[in-house]
Design brief:
This protein is an alpha/beta fold. The protein is about 40% helix and about 15% strand. It has 22 helices and 18 strands. Strand 15 (about 440-445), helix 16 (about 450-465) and strand 16 (about 475-480) form a beta-alpha-beta unit. The longest helix is centred in the middle third of the chain and has 21 residues, at about 345-365. The protein starts with a helix and ends with a helix. It binds thiamine diphosphate (TPP) and magnesium ion. Thiamine diphosphate binds near residues 484 and 487.
């Protein structure tokens, strides 16, 4: 029997299979903390375990990453007022990337609400946008059962964020597990299973006709195709298609297949760019990749899109056939309708471009820089990635090198903040990955700006929990370039402004030495000759590692093609007195020149 509302709330979450809640305490949720305490923090009762982070935003990132790496509901918890407010950015990350996450927050006591009380914030209104599918405040013990049931079920079925607000005095009230059988009460049950969603036969036939009539088919897969690798590969084979991957879909299929053109977009590859320029048919599966200039021009290609969410269909390219359905199921239904394309010349052309691209990547990685070329850091890591690795990239230049230089193999997982593109998720995502898959090696690829924003603090969380992971392999790669580099390049290439050192330069920080102070392994590399050995050491270290790579901020994260406008903007930035003009020109020319080599 659950004694209090707090006890019952945790028990009900356990009924939903919730094993872990990321959060931070406060007097707004002491009635919930007491319930964790009464169950010896989960271990005694099957209740969830409370994982204490350094900042509530990190708890929300971790809940999001839990959802991304397990497919389950992620849960985070924070106190009223400031704690609840801190959650927001991480919750938006989950909402925008369509992850099921439940936020549970405290509130002032019911009797004081509306009294301009200390820490009283109108939380229903605050969460109304991020948790627009379901946000409710409990005012009665008898509500808890259906509020939990609905918040969990709606988050899962809509793949979105929901929020529950529980006043602190209510948490300590006597639980009502079963509302009275009376008018005005709600009697809910737990549980949700994913439905089978397949389009109608007539629509599948129409899609098959478009795909069969095309001769140069380009595929673009996103995170919605995770779990549909066999079907994606089977249809690509029948269609003689190449496959480009949106960032969140990087792990859908391995990068070592000859017809995989890799990432697309500003962080993408040249083969993906040319495939989209030259295709006559586009098959998009589970992606909402936003940048239209990287997709075919309107009218150039006929399009078929598959997405489980009818709202995400037909918004990036005017598709001829829009199929609302599960990726694997829908592709499976399409496969018997396909005629195998006998002319393989399109696929062969793409494969040749992919070979050239990887050669170019290798050459660019080995160009000298001052002191380290970040591409070499990623290149050397890529070759050494252990089987089953989980990779979490941050936003920043690391996302470029993650997208282009990391060759994922079958069985690996990877993610980042794809749609919100927020700084800061790298380290907390990695921590959640480690809790969800403690036997797998996990990597966070993070800039020094993101480390200074929150990653450094979350190293303390790693130090706190490392002993609970049976396999402690967790590497945080920090690109120490003393610069907010991605934005510095955007200032130059998009706005035509020289680097503004006042906003862009970062103070140096001893990341590896700090890791050592925390009892982690710290490795600092500032000489390219040391990289292979340093990576070997990092990958065989007995516990978590901070791998500090001192990298050159003047190595340009070049887009797959430079438009005339970007070239003009960059040259005007340099002419306007960019403080690093000379070295930028040298590095850019070196990078570009590799494309001209035979
Ligand atoms: C919360 C947040 N603030 C600002 C930005 C804008 N932004 C995107 S990347 C970036 C620079 C990141 O710098 P760093 O982490 O050092 O990585 P680098 O690009 O230098 O490798 C900034 C400021 C953002 N995406 N998110
Ligand atoms: Mg940086």
């Amino acid at each position: 029997m659950s004694a209090t509302v707090g006890d019952f709330l945790l028990d009900r979450l356990a009924t939903w299979g919730i094993a872990r809640i990321y959060g931070y305490p406060g007097d707004g949720i002491n009635g919930l903390m007491g319930a964790f305490g009464r169950s010896a923090n989960g271990s005694a009762s099957g209740r969830p375990q409370f994982i204490q982070v350094r900042h509530e935003e990190m708890a929300a990132f971790m809940a999001c990453a839990h959802a991304k790496f397990t497919g389950e509901l992620g849960v985070c918890m924070a106190t009223s007022g400031p704690g609840a407010i801190h959650l927001l950015n991480g919750l938006y990350d989950a909402k925008l990337d369509h992850q099921p996450v439940l936020a549970i927050v405290g509130q002032q006591a019911r009797a004081g609400l509306g009294g301009n009380y200390q820490q009283e914030v109108d939380l229903t209104t605050l969460f109304k946008d991020v948790a627009h599918e379901y946000v409710h405040m409990a005012t009665e013990p008898a509500q808890i059962r259906h509020l939990v049931d609905r918040a969990c079920r709606i988050a899962l079925s809509e793949r979105t964020v929901t929020a529950l607000i529980v006043p602190n005095d209510l948490q300590e009230a006597d639980a009502v597990q079963e509302p009275p059988h009376a008018h005005g009460t709600v009697h809910s049950g737990a549980g949700w299973t994913a439905p089978r969603v397949v389009p109608l036969d007539a629509d599948l036939d129409r899609a098959a006709r478009v795909l069969n009539e095309g001769s140069r088919v380009a595929m673009l897969v996103g995170q919605g195709a995770l779990g549909a690798a066999d079907e994606v590969l089977a249809i690509a084979d029948l269609l003689g298609a190449g496959i480009a991957k949106a960032l969140l879909g990087k792990a859908v299929i391995p990068d070592d297949l000859p017809f995989v053109t890799g990432s697309i977009g500003l962080l993408g590859t040249r083969p993906s760019w040319t495939m989209m320029q030259d295709c006559d048919t586009l098959l998009m599966v589970g992606s909402s990749f936003p940048y239209s200039e990287f997709l075919p021009e309107e009218g150039q290609a006929r399009g078929v899109q598959i997405d489980i969410d009818g709202r995400m269909i037909g918004i990036r390219y005017p598709m001829e056939v829009n199929l609302v359905g599960d990726s694997a199921e829908t592709l499976r239904a399409l496969i018997p309708r396909m005629n195998r394309k006998e002319d393989r010349s399109w696929r062969e052309k793409l494969e040749a471009e992919v070979v050239d691209w990887w050669t170019l990547m290798e050459r660019r990685a080995h160009l000298s820089a001052d002191p380290l070329n970040p591409q070499l850091v990623f290149h050397e890591l890529s070759q050494r990635l252990p089987d089953g690795a989980i990779i979490c990239s941050d936003s920043g230049s690391s996302a470029n090198w993650f997208a282009r230089d990391i060759k994922l193999r079958a069985g690996m997982m990877a993610s980042l903040s794809g749609t919100l593109a927020t700084m800061g998720p790298g380290v907390p995502y990695a921590i959640a990955a480690k809790f969800a898959h403690p036997h797998r090696p996990v990597f966070a690829l993070v800039g020094d700006g993101a480390m200074q924003m929150n990653g450094i603090n979350e190293l303390i969380t790693i130090a706190k929990y490392r002993e609970s992971w049976p396999d402690q392999r967790l590497v945080v790669l920090v690109l120490n370039n003393r610069d907010l580099n991605q934005v510095t390049w955007e200032q130059r290439a998009m706005s035509g402004d020289p680097k503004f050192e006042g906003s862009q330069d970062l103070p140096d920080f001893p990341y590896a030495a700090y890791a050592e102070m925390l009892g982690l392994t710290g490795i600092r590399v500032d000489n390219p000759d040391d990289l292979p050995d340093a990576w070997d050491r990092a990958l065989t270290a007995p516990g978590p590692v901070v791998f500090e790579a001192v990298t050159d901020p003047e190595v340009p994260p070049l887009p797959p093609h430079i438009t005339l406008e970007q070239a003009k903007a960059l040259s005007s930035a340099l002419l306007a007195g960019d403080p690093n003009a000379g070295r930028i020109i040298t590095q850019s020319i070196k990078q570009k020149a590799q494309e001209l080599r035979p």
